[in-house]
Amino acid sequence: MRAPVPAMAGSRRGIRIGVLIAWCLMICTGAALLASTGGEVRVVGLRGAVNPVTASFIKRNLDDAARKGDRLVLVEMDTPGGLDTAMREIVKDILASHVPVAVYVAPAGARAGSAGAVITLAADIAAMAPGTNIGAAHPVAIGEKQDKVMEQKVLNDAEAYVDGIASRRGRNAEVARRMVRESLSLPAEKALEEKVIDLIAADRSALLAQLEGRPVPRPGGDKVLRLAGAPVREAEMTTRERILDAIGNPNVAYVLMMLGFLGLFFELSTPGVILPGVIGGIALILAFFAFQTLPVNYAGVLLILLALILFIAEIKVVSGGMLTVGGVIAMVLGSILLFDSPEPYLRVSWQVIAVTVAAVSAFSIFAVTMAVRAHRRKPTTGGEGLVGETGRALSDVNPEGRVFIHGEYWGAWSDEPLAEGDRVTVVAVDGMRVKVKKAGIRDR
What we know:
Blueprint: H1 5-37, E1 41-47, H2 52-68, E2 72-78, H3 84-95, E3 101-105, E4 111-113, H4 115-122, E5 125-128, E6 133-135, H5 148-168, H6 173-181, E7 185-187, H7 188-193, E8 199-200, H8 204-211, E9 215-216, E10 223-224, E11 232-234, H9 239-247, H10 250-269, H11 275-291, H12 298-316, H13 322-337, H14 350-376, H15 382-386, E12 390-393, E13 400-405, E14 408-413, E15 423-430, E16 433-438
Parallel strand pairs: 1-2, 1-11, 2-3, 3-5, 4-6, 5-8, 14-16
Antiparallel strand pairs: 6-7, 9-10, 12-13, 12-15, 13-14, 15-16
């Protein structure tokens, strides 16, 4: 009767082992599920031109998202384009990202132009809002004009680049090449039809709803997006990044340069003030920092510098105002030529040029006028300041006597006899004596 006991004990051990295995499986599954649904949706705004600052901003957030295990990095884009070097940095960071990256061209009226189109093609998920457009990615040279051979090499390189990106993401490589070679631009609906993007969403909430449960190819296998209930956090630029991004704007760089030149002009025309020179030096350094990423035509810089030299020369040279007129003309021409680019976002706006030139010219003309008046003003102190002053004779002056001039007693002489109490005018000063004449009588 005791023989079955070992069998029963073995069955109990089997049950226990099975239960333990089941618990392990449940724990592993729960951990995997928790890992797949942990983290947040990080929203990164890309507004304005693509430059080194925006590239650094996106890289910092992609790295931080990978460390914190975010579920998705959503880049909301509205850009006319930007620098090729900055664009390539962003593309490399997106392709190497451990966190899925979605690029969303929004809101309505936004665009992913030029460099923005290439960044959108590189994303794991490309989406657009209705009323947006993408494309026009033809490369444009910044600065000196390229010859035909170099222009063709740059074009071929850009075409091959977007072809490789589109093919890797499973998008329409032919249309991507046309965006580069023919500057093709597509509205959202046409881009979806041509398989340039993956979906259209009216707003961020609709986009996240459409992405729920969507598989995203990753190096270790597809990752299913679980975004329901995930907290959404908008990433902000640091103070440093905001300042550098603002400086990179052509309008801001232009105003900084003008402030710099103006500060130096004021310091040179009025030595010893110090503060304008310090402010001008700081403004010029910031302007030259911005010039590293802008298509600067240094003929424009030299024309603006020439304008300030002409303003200063007006103080020293009697030109009847012609130097000032020449300075205003040189400043206008220099402002127009300063940034040489066919892209509007890389040029200074006409409104900024008009206001800045008017303000700088008015200030310069005012400073020059005040300086000229100061040079021409009659001296009010010392011996020269007494010439022309009037007073009265304290005694007969025939030929010498005493007079009261400008609150002081002076020894005086005159070429004509003067009686005590006569009104007199100072003609000349000789040491501690003055030469006088009767007031109202002209010198011969």
